[in-house]
Amino acid sequence: MPGEVAAPRIDITQLPPEAAALIARLQQQVQAQAREIAWRDPAACYAALAAALPGPSAFLDSALVEPRLGRYSYVAVDPFRQLRFDGRRAFVDGQPVAGDPFAILRAELARHPMVGRAGLPPFQGGALGWLSYDLGQQLEQLPDPRDPSRRFDDLALGLYDGLVAFDHVLGRAWIVASGLPEAEPLARAARARARIARFARILDAVPPEPGPGATPDPVALTGPPAAVVPPSGRVAPVRVRSNFSRPAYLAGVQRVIDYILAGDIFQANFTQRFSAELPAGDSAWALYRRLRVGNPAPFAAFLDWGEQVIASASPERFLRLRAGGEVETRPIKGTRPRGATPAEDAALGRALLASEKDRAENVMIVDLLRNDLSRVCRPHSVVTPEICALERYATVQHLVSAVEGRLEAGRDAVDLLRASFPGGSITGAPKIRAMQIIAELEPTRRGPYCGSVAWLGFDGAMDSSIIIRSFCIRGRQLSFQAGGGIVADSEPAAEHAESLDKAAALLRALGGRLEEDDVSC
Known about the structure:
The protein is an alpha+beta fold. The chain has a domain at 219-278 and 326-448 and 477-520: Anthranilate synthase, CATH 3.60.120.10. It is built from 12 helices and 25 strands. It has helices at 17-27, 42-52, 101-110, 185-203, 246-261, 284-294, 342-354, 356-374, 413-420, 431-441, 492-510, 516-520; strands at 33-37, 57-61, 72-77, 81-85, 90-92, 95-97, 126-131, 155-160, 162-167, 172-177, 238-242, 267-277, 299-305, 308-314, 317-321, 326-329, 332-337, 383-392, 396-406, 428-429, 452-457, 462-466, 470-474, 477-486, 512-514. The strands form 2 sheets. Strands 1, 2, 3, 9, 10, 11, 12, 13, 14, 20, 23, 24 and 25 form a 13-stranded mixed β-sheet that branches. Helix 5 (246-261) crosses helix 11. The chain starts with 16 loop residues before the first helix and ends with a helix. The relative contact order is 0.17.
């Protein structure tokens, strides 16, 4: 890397056995180096680093000061390795490699073992990117979608050795670098120091500011969502079209209900895709900035792989794995819009909590996820500490549950992904049959939508979200999807309205307007 100092290489085969053994042990105890820096706006730090350093970049943007969910944000740029899977072949640094993408990911992580450093945010280096919903075809026997074309890779992960980590609760920030992929301790330490110094020089241009300690928690706010202002000078709304007319969507919901009544499934997640063109003068990053203002979310993310960009305001955790083996998933099922006044907001929340239909929908997915986790967790360790708790976000409120477990000895983050992917909350139950019905009824591939943004640490930890409330942008073409879980007593018109409620924040951020025939015909 330009400007970095190369450390001398040591051939441990030429050292005395005792020294060689000591160095070998040290190589297995890699820990990141860190430099604490003054607090800066995480979005401004991302913009500065992504502009200065090449290759894929990622901004994991926890917008809420809430210790369980939105505590940490991360900026990662300039990965030392890139992993991709296009649905047919896997690539490492652009070169095709044979094998299953999950096995390739595990092998790459295993080449760079690291021990987490206490006192720092949990992600201290590792793989970061997205796994498409369509990657599920590598795990289960599923029919091909009706539309065979792919606009996005099924998997795109960078291996990052340098990042900036932000703790929104403590109001502290660090530049973190592991020195990987260097194997020799001196070379690794030199790379880490140079990495930290380079990041610090770039961030000198970003002015420090007060920490976030006094920032209100948007989840607790009531009233109408924040205003979002489209780019100045735009004279007309962006035209947005759905891949379903309203009658066709209602018919699709009814078809799912028919499958339920016939005994095929208990529930399926059915969605529509909205498509538009990013207007001249707008950008994916500007669109994301508007989205995060109007719809702050604990698992927001911006992933830029050049022609492929994910701009996500996800409220939903998929899987979290701590380095000690503790597992958590937090499925969302059950939705109401936010109210225009505190009284209306509270009434809508009470109605959601009292809804037998929504609670049943949530509990079905909890049972499915308990089964998924039980495949890789210790016997009797899977528990459900929260059932159907009410959580409020900028434009909607949800019922959220929590399922926890402890990973079985000898299992790892990749095993957990294999057992659980894609998430049960965006498939249905039973999962495989629900996915088959989704492939039959939805006219296009989901792509990244309903997949996962994830980081997998070199120390074995992992955290991930479900890609919902998200823009998928390819060049100037963008899409976003919305829908809901269909159960036996679902009403097609209400399900269509719920899908539009979920799409509202994205439409506002885009400055979009649905074509009339897609709303009313």
